[in-house]
Amino acid sequence: MSSARAIQWTKDNWAFGCDFVGNDLSNVQIRGEDCGLKCVQTQDCTHFTWTQWNGGTCWLKKGPISKNQAVKTDDNTMVCGVVGDSETGIGPTPAGGSIGPLLNRVLATRHGAREAGACALPASSYAIVHPVALGNIEALKHLKFRPDLCGQVLRVNCGNGPLDIIVTNSNLGGGLDLYASTWDKLTNNKPPGETSCTVQLTSRNAFNFNGPRCFYKPGTDYNNAYYHNVGLLNTNGRIISRATIDNRLGEHRGANPYYAFNFGPLDANKQVVFTFEDGSTHSVFLRECEYQQSEHLWS
């Protein structure tokens, strides 16, 4: 056996002639080409190995993983792969793991527009560039659209490998309305129509910086002492439930993640307390909230 550096990985994070030793979760007799999708659809599966044993067996495996942990084998019919890699920050690792149950058979359609979307996310440097308009059909369960899901990262698989995508818009009455770049990646350039996907919330951050950051809603008057409209983004998958200043609640004005505080006067030294659904909080001073004039455009 030799190191993983001799293994020729595909862009979808699988390879021939390799194995991951131990950490077995379960196994199932299926074709090798279906093993990766089976891992994506299985709770707690982070990586896999497929062998010809018993007519073809997919060995589903659990725990944090990196491609560097794979070992080269002399059997080139074997396949190994990862749902995510700790080196890239993609997949079930502390920096970008899946949160909550995997949702199956979620309707997805194609969205052809180029727009900012209802979330009004600020112009910035984004690590996640594939957008989605999130719906509220029953199949989405706990991930039905609400303003505080704006900017969160979802891991979606429509049968061609997982892709991390960012919530930028609402699609009320529908499912996952995938923008053109997202649709093409997830369906392997399938013509516009409908497809079925799995979806799961992740703890990945959408922006190219670490930790939460407060933003004013783009285009608002941030110098108005009697009106502040701010939101906290890049929260590692933690969902905000409310925001307060001096114990007074802010409110959403539209389908965006910003909380409006329509009272004052409030100076820059006032603190905004954002409370997450798990009860934890994150506080920032108004002076720390970043202002961007423009919204980011997505397509």
Radius of gyration: 21 Å
Supply the CATH architecture of the largest domain: Beta Barrel
- SS-derived structural category: mainly beta
Question: Tally the helices: what do you get?
Answer: 2
The level of helicity is under 10%
Report the β-strand fraction as a percent range.
35-45%
Arithmetic mean of pLDDT: 90
Please write out the topology:
Elements: E1 14-16, E2 18-19, E3 24-28, H1 35-40, E4 45-51, E5 57-62, E6 71-72, E7 79-82, E8 98-111, E9 131-135, E10 153-157, E11 162-171, E12 176-179, H2 180-187, E13 194-202, E14 213-216, E15 228-233, E16 240-245, E17 248-249, E18 251-252, E19 259-261, E20 271-276, E21 281-285
Parallel strand pairs: 8-12, 9-11
Antiparallel strand pairs: 1-7, 2-6, 3-5, 4-5, 4-7, 8-13, 9-12, 10-11, 10-13, 14-15, 15-19, 16-17, 16-20, 18-19, 20-21
Summarize the structure.
This is Apple domain-containing protein. By secondary structure, the chain is mainly β. It has 2 helices and 21 strands.
Would you mind describing this structure in some detail?
With 299 residues, this protein is mainly beta. The chain has three domains: 79 residues, 3-Layer(bba) Sandwich (Hepatocyte Growth Factor); 105 residues, Barwin-like endoglucanases (Beta Barrel); 76 residues, Immunoglobulin-like (Sandwich). It contains two helices and 21 strands. Strands 8-12-9-11-10-13 form a six-stranded mixed beta barrel. Strands 1-7-4-5-3 form a five-stranded antiparallel β-sheet. The chain has a four-stranded antiparallel β-sheet with strand order 14-15-19-18, with no helix packed on it. β16 and β17 form a beta hairpin. The longest helix is centred in the middle third of the chain and has 8 residues. About 4% of the residues have low confidence. This is Apple domain-containing protein.
